Amino acid sequence: MMRHTLNFATPLPPGWAELEDQRWYWERFTDKFGFRPGTSAATWPAIAEPTPSITFDLAVHDNIRGSWASRVDAINAEALRCFVTEFPEDPVFVVLDWQHTCYRLDAAVHAVTLDAEWRVPVYPNGDYYIYLRDDLSEGTFGHPWEQSLCVFGDRLLGSLATTLKTWLPVKRVDGKPM
Known about the structure:
Strand content: 15-25%
Strand order of the largest sheet: 1-4-3-5-6-7-2-8-9
Organism: Hoyosella altamirensis
Pfam family, one: DUF2716
Helix content: 25-40%
Protein name: DUF2716 domain-containing protein
Shape: globular
Order of helices and strands: EHEHEEHEEEHEE
């Protein structure tokens, strides 16, 4: 079972490297997507969701023991599969973690590492988690308070969004409510 790293004093898992120019990426991301953090529904969504994109509802509406944890693992695993298979020529992603250290993730190295830990999961479990291609053209935006995951860019829509649509409710398409 894959889980994110809880002890940030441990060495980085294989495939993870600290992002040297974090501020530069945050500025680019904020400029392109109009990022505006907020915990109240009046501030949601926290980005101008791009076209094309699909935003999924991650709220757990059932009271089944283990439901939330299994969803976390399923989304992280499916995102990893898509990162590796859709970007075989360069499976490296920029990973932004709001108010924390940010990283570069080589998804292929992470995928082949036995019991690999997620330093920052795709599933937003307490903070904004953003996975981006270096040019910001494709990625995911996880919103912890809205409990949503926005998937954007042609390749990720054709893979990750397609599989997530089979079991998660869609909140918005291209930033428009469903």
